[in-house]
Specification:
14-stranded antiparallel β-sheet, 10% helix
Length: 255
């Protein structure tokens, strides 16, 4: 798939990030020439690195895998992984190690084109494992970028709409002998239904802060769009009439 050059300000593609942000994130560029392609961006203390070159096509239509090397990005190292499917869903993972006492703020934006259509249901899920660092007391918390760890967005072109599946606010703490304690903090899952809405793209945002030098945080999560069929009013009426008829027959048989 060919790509086209896209240089977007935070106010456009990152509108879901900055809509509730205490501070703005800078723009990030990607692509060469052609049509819209999946992308993955990593922000470390606000500085953006494009990870899209580590997105590879998988078998099947509109399916890609994310598998990056571990990159040193100033204050931390970052490794991203995941799967993007136009079906549509995004599963994602991020592992970060920080090099200073911190805190260091991370934001990861995954985006993919999807089968254009009307959708009415979204879900999110996620969790993190935290291994303590040099101080022996590591905490992962939500960031000033967004109020929750995980959020999902349906897009039309580059216009995003929050899908109502913002997930996770509880801090995750790992305390004990340095480098020996790993704490797993699941953030659960969340679903939301809404009127049928047309989308041609899907985004997943993960953001958090991490402290304690050489601590490690490893996240996994997913955002999914789907269509749940709702019966037509005429169908509901027919079912109701059928139940009334069955009830009437049963009463006659008892008499």
């Amino acid at each position: 798939m060919k790509r086209r050059t896209i240089v977007l300000t935070a106010a456009v593609l990152l509108a879901p990030v900055t809509a509730f942000a205490q501070g703005e994130l800078p723009s990030c560029s990607r692509g060469t020439a052609g049509s819209i392609a999946p992308y993955a961006w990593a922000f470390v203390n606000g500085a953006c690195t494009d990870f899209s070159e580590w997105i590879f096509p998988d078998t099947g239509h509109m399916v890609w895998n994310v598998n990056s090397p571990t990159l040193d990005l100033g204050a931390a190292s970052v490794q991203l992984r995941g799967r993007m499917d136009g079906d549509p869903f995004i599963t994602f993972g991020a592992t970060t190690t920080i090099f200073s006492p911190g805190p260091v703020t991370f934001a990861f934006l995954f985006g993919t084109p999807i089968v254009p259509g009307s959708y009415n249901t979204a879900t999110s899920t996620g969790g993190v494992s935290v291994t303590n660092g040099a101080r022996g007391n590591t905490t992962v918390t939500t960031s000033g970028v967004y109020p929750t760890y995980i959020s999902g967005y349906g897009t039309v072109g580059f216009t995003p709409t929050n899908l109502g599946v913002d997930l996770g606010t509880a801090a995750c703490n790992s305390t004990g002998t340095p480098f020996t304690v790993t704490t797993v903090c699941g953030q659960g899952s969340l679903g939301n239904s809404f009127p049928l809405t047309f989308y041609d793209g899907l985004q997943a945002l993960l953001t958090y802060t991490q402290d304690d030098a050489f601590s490690v945080a490893s996240w996994s999560g997913a955002v999914t769009l789907s269509v749940v069929a709702t019966p037509e009013p005429a169908t509901i009426a027919l079912v109701g009439l059928g139940l009334v008829f069955v009830g009437g027959v049963a009463r006659r048989r008892r008499t």
